[in-house]
UniProtKB/TrEMBL annotation:
GO biological process: regulation of DNA-templated transcription
InterPro entries (alphabetical): AAA+_ATPase, AAA_lid_NorR, GAF, GAF-like_dom_sf, Homeodomain-like_sf, HTH_Fis, P-loop_NTPase, Sigma_54_int
Gene3D superfamilies for the chain: 1.10.8.60, 3.30.450.40, Homeodomain-like, P-loop containing nucleotide triphosphate hydrolases
Native source species: Hydrocarboniphaga effusa AP103
GO MF terms, alphabetically ordered: ATP binding; sequence-specific DNA binding
Annotated Pfam families: AAA_lid_14, GAF, HTH_8, Sigma54_activat
Residue ranges constituting the Sigma-54 factor interaction domain according to the UniProt record: 344-572
Record's keyword terms, sorted: ATP-binding, DNA-binding, Nucleotide-binding, Transcription, Transcription regulation
Protein name, per record: Transcriptional regulator AcoR
Length: 667
């Protein structure tokens, strides 16, 4: 293999002869590849002097503000790493995805001119600085050492830089952790330890940021060595109440590949844990609730690789009880303090009447239909009714009919016998209808159920038995249905999109939830949600009276879901002086004044948020557009991404931002 030095000589020779031909041939190492890029694509002349480009303080401040939570996590990791390398005269740099350094620790003791670039705000992208640790690591997306003569510009030849890429909790490249020295031994091997430590701390920073980001989710931690799984999990998967994967750390993305099968989303996110592991979801939940001993092994579906597992429960749950306390998932969503139904409304005559009616109907053998705009709390009400009923100790099974792909809805609802399908689903499955037996089946967005399944559902409702796919004999079931839709089911019946006989079966009584703008108890709801959100974010903040007035006067097109998001947002960005008008998102009526923090390594790391971020963070029309697209595409994230011309990670990020949750199937 040719050495990079050889490559430099080749290029320099050609350049010295006064020609600039296109370098050809296959790049043999990543350093060669970088040289090709710098020479051919960017037209950089390695003989010219590289002058360090430093960002202006304003632009650097904005860069840092955009990455504030991540900077805090990275800073702790860097401080720990620095303790290992301080005596070796290394400087630690943290660069963002553009290659600009946004944090730095240590300064070379020598006053070599090389030290000029190892500072805050320096631009180390390949385009600006040629082949170097940070820029080349960003381009290659892997850990590397750019040792002395590997550097493109002669002015940087003495540097030795080891860099590792940092991916955000959605798998997008967010920056680079770099360890640089201005003096180092000739031999590249001298950087082995630096490389190992940089990579180790890079993963620790990513994982800490992952845990922080998905703190309100269950996180499955996996390791091939059981003793280490609690302290060092190589793989982490965040999952929601339906067992759907919502996040995967770098280790999991690298190690877990998916079995190709119809109905599985590409990549880990969006798939069920049961698509990845042979274990039953119920066993994983039992383990999470401490009902299944202290050890769990999971086995991947393709070659049976065994992993030791630990589960971290969501922060909100952890405050209710420990992982070993049996807490049902339902309890995480409906905040019950006695009578759950009672807490859903304050002093609003229509809502109080609706809740009284709900309480009276709760244990009666009538199916209920809940109508209301999106985000008005249809699912919350359905759960509260279930909890107030005599069926409370039996399962509450929620199915979002708009969310399950049409090809899967039949098998999900009715179940199937072993051998009906090949592959991961060969073991058979009890359908959601049968699982709800004795409890409540909540059919959300019932208006989106395909007609042929409406017919099957009607049969189940009239005969009280269900026939799984491939089964010869039906199973008897004790079925109670609460259905919901934001669309007017009567109109769907009139247009022929919904079966009239099913409509009458379902609506033993119709409960109509008021939109938030029409409710007289907004102040009560705001106060209740504020308390819940403050507890879940672990903050105690005062809120200005004028802010409350604005919240009460706003008309909330996204209803209670939007209210919750706005409150969470304001509590997240407010400082210790409390929530003030400037923390309100733009559409609630106040022009946003950018809140910026002073820059510098010792600058306070709390809450600097730019106007652009605020405007982007809360935008109900955008949220509504997204929700419409999700429904239109039956919650297939890949289709939605194509529909809206966005990447899948952005869809997931926006779903989280607007509190849009994928379908609930079963807990
Ligand atoms: N009465 C309430 N008290 C507190 N939070 C509520 C209440 N009603 C709804 N929420 C919150 O609003 C959000 C949306 O609730 P939910 O999913 O029940 O609405 P939905 O009407 O079923 O929405 P969609 O039509 O989009 O499915 C959730 O975050 C929920 O916690």
């Amino acid at each position: 293999m040719r050495s990079p030095l050889h490559h430099i000589e080749t290029v320099m020779g050609v350049v010295a002869a006064g020609t600039m031909p296109v370098l050809d041939g296959r790049a043999e190492t990543l350093i060669h590849r970088s040289w090709f890029r710098c020479f051919n694509d960017y037209g950089l002349d390695p003989r010219s002097t590289h002058r360090t480009q430093i960002e202006s303080p304003v632009s650097l401040r904005e860069r840092r503000a955009r990455r504030e939570p991540y900077l805090q996590v990275a800073r702790s990791g860097m401080e720990q790493l620095y303790r290992h390398v301080a005596e070796l005269d290394y400087t630690l740099l943290l660069a963002d995805a553009d290659g600009v350094t946004v944090d730095a620790i240590g300064r070379p003791s020598s006053d070599s001119p090389l030290a000029a670039g190892l500072v805050l705000g320096a631009n180390w992208s390949e385009l600006v600085a040629g082949t170097n640790g940070i820029g080349t690591c960003l381009a290659e997306r892997r850990t590397l050492t750019c040792h002395r003569e590997d550097h493109y510009y002669t002015g940087n030849l003495g540097l030795s830089c080891t860099a590792t890429p940092l991916f955000d909790p959605h798998g997008e490249l967010m920056g680079v952790l770099d360890v640089s020295a201005v003096t180092s031994p000739e031999a590249r091997e001298s950087q082995h330890l630096a490389r190992h430590l940089t990579s180790l701390y890079g993963r620790m920073i990513e994982d800490a940021s992952f845990m922080q980001h998905f703190g309100d989710r269950h996180i499955l931690r996996l390791s091939q060595g059981s003793a280490l799984v609690d302290v060092h999990a190589e793989l982490m998967l965040a999952f929601d109440n339906d067992g759907l994967i919502v996040g995967a750390n770098t280790g999991a993305r690298r190690r877990l590949q998916l079995v190709e099968s119809a109905g599985l989303a590409a990549g880990l996110v969006g798939n069920s844990l049961t698509a990845i592991f042979r274990n039953r979801l119920g066993d994983i939940w039992k383990f999470a609730r401490g009902q299944q001993g202290s050890d769990l092994s999971v086995f991947d579906t393709w070659n049976g690789q065994r992993y030791h597992a630990a589960i971290v429960v969501p922060r909100t749950l952890a405050t209710v009880g420990t992982a070993r306390t049996p807490v049902t998932i339902t309890q995480t969503i409906v905040h019950s303090d006695g009578d759950t139904l009672q807490t859903l409304a304050g002093d609003d005559a229509r809502m109080r009447q609706l809740l009284d009616q709900s309480r009276r109907l709760a244990s009666k053998p009538v199916n209920l239909l809940i109508q209301g705009e999106t985000g008005t709390g249809k699912e919350v009400l359905a759960k509260a009714i279930h909890e107030s009923s005599q069926r409370a100790d039996k399962p509450f099974v929620a199915v979002n009919c708009a969310a399950i792909p049409e090809s899967l809805i039949e098998s999900e609802l009715f179940g199937y016998m072993p051998g009906t399908f090949t592959g991961a689903r060969s073991r058979g499955m009890t359908g959601l209808i049968a699982r709800s037996s004795g409890g409540t089946l909540f059919l959300d967005e019932i208006g989106d159920m395909p007609l042929h399944l409406q017919t099957r559902l009607l049969r189940v409702l009239s005969e009280h038995e269900v026939l799984p796919l491939g089964a010869e004999r039906p199973l008897a079931i004790d079925l109670h249905v609460i259905a919901a839709s934001h669309r007017d089911l009567r109109q769907l019946v009139e247009s022929g999109a919904f079966r009239e006989d099913l409509y009458y079966r379902l609506c033993g009584a119709t409960l109509r939830l008021s939109p938030l703008r029409e409710r007289q108890d907004k102040a009560y709801l705001i106060e209740r949600l504020l308390r819940e959100e403050a507890a879940s974010l672990d903050v105690q903040l005062q809120i200005e009276a004028e802010v409350l007035d604005r919240l009460v006067c706003y008309d909330w097109p996204g209803n209670i879901r939007q209210l919750r998001q706005v409150l969470r947002f304001m509590l997240s960005i407010a400082d210790e002086r409390g929530v003030r008008l400037e923390h309100l998102p733009e559409e609630i009526g106040v022009p946003v004044t950018p809140v910026v923090a002073p820059i510098g390594l010792s600058a306070p790391l709390s809450a600097p948020v730019t106007a652009a971020m605020k405007a982007e963070a809360i935008l109900p029309q955008e949220g509504q557009r997204l929700l419409d697209a999700l429904r239109r595409n039956r919650w297939n994230i890949s289709y939605v991404a194509r529909d809206l011309d966005l990447c899948r990670a952005t869809i997931y990020r926006r779903m989280r931002r607007y509190g849009i949750v994928p379908p609930t199937h079963l807990h």
